[in-house]
Amino acid sequence: MRASLIQIAVEEGESVEARRVRVASLVREQAGSADLVVLPELWTTGAFAYEEFGSEAEPLEGPTYEAMAKAASDAGVWLHAGSIPERDPDGPLYNTSLVFSPSGELAAAYRKIHRFGFDKGEAVLMGAGRELVTVRLPGTTLGLATCYDLRFPELFRGLVDAGAETLVVPAGWPERRRSHWTLLAQARAVENQAFVLACGTAGTHAGVPQAGHSIVVDPWGEVLAEAGSGEEVLTVDLDPSKVATTREQFPALKDRVLGLQPPRR
């Protein structure tokens, strides 16, 4: 399986609509060269452009949905279209990822569970998702997570228990914590014996420089490919059978001990 991570530059001066058209074109360019294409988190607005979440929020089947469904179909690829600020007509905003099949059908939607910001930003502007989401592709099962989720290993254990073999993490990760980005991506791969495809943004969101450095890690924790800091398409060939081989050769997941009791007081 060949995966292409498109590390999109989000800069001031480019409208959401112009970026949507440009990104759709980048997806189409992967026709014939990728089976799976991955975009970053909140690339329409920028992950730190909090003041734009409300004005640029879309219904699930809004303009980004339509543009990405068409791009996936035109390119004939599985497309993880990153995430959008979703406006639920019956609830709050959500940070929602969309996955499309090569025919342009919606295969899955994932509402980000862990919202970043503590007592401000995304944490107060958006609702929290409640469901783990996996997507079955030919040869592998994707487990979906988004950015700040990467810091919570129990979420990834849940995805592995649900059958995930390839963990996909779109992000808008800041440059000042880039060392955490690469460290956590490798840790999630090693502890879950799964591929990790972590796709970030380039550029600057609301004055916050982005880390870039999208990364692909194999089930042994080896970095197969890593992008630089600018806009870039990172393409790598994956052998999905390596997950099963790794888990057979080093069956650490079988030694998990669950249901431990708290210490006596």
Automatic annotation (TrEMBL):
Keywords assigned: Hydrolase
Record CDD domains: nitrilase_5
Transmembrane segments: none
UniProt xrefs under InterPro entries: C-N_Hydrolase, C-N_Hydrolase_sf, UPF0012_CS
SUPFAM superfamilies: Carbon-nitrogen hydrolase
Stretches assigned to the CN hydrolase domain: 1-240
Pfam families to which the protein is assigned, alphabetical: CN_hydrolase
Keyword Hydrolase listed: yes
One Gene Ontology term of the molecular function aspect: hydrolase activity
Domain of life, per lineage: Bacteria
PANTHER family membership: DEAMINATED GLUTATHIONE AMIDASE, NITRILASE-RELATED
UniProt record similarity statement: Belongs to the carbon-nitrogen hydrolase superfamily. NIT1/NIT2 family.
Designated name of the protein: Hydrolase
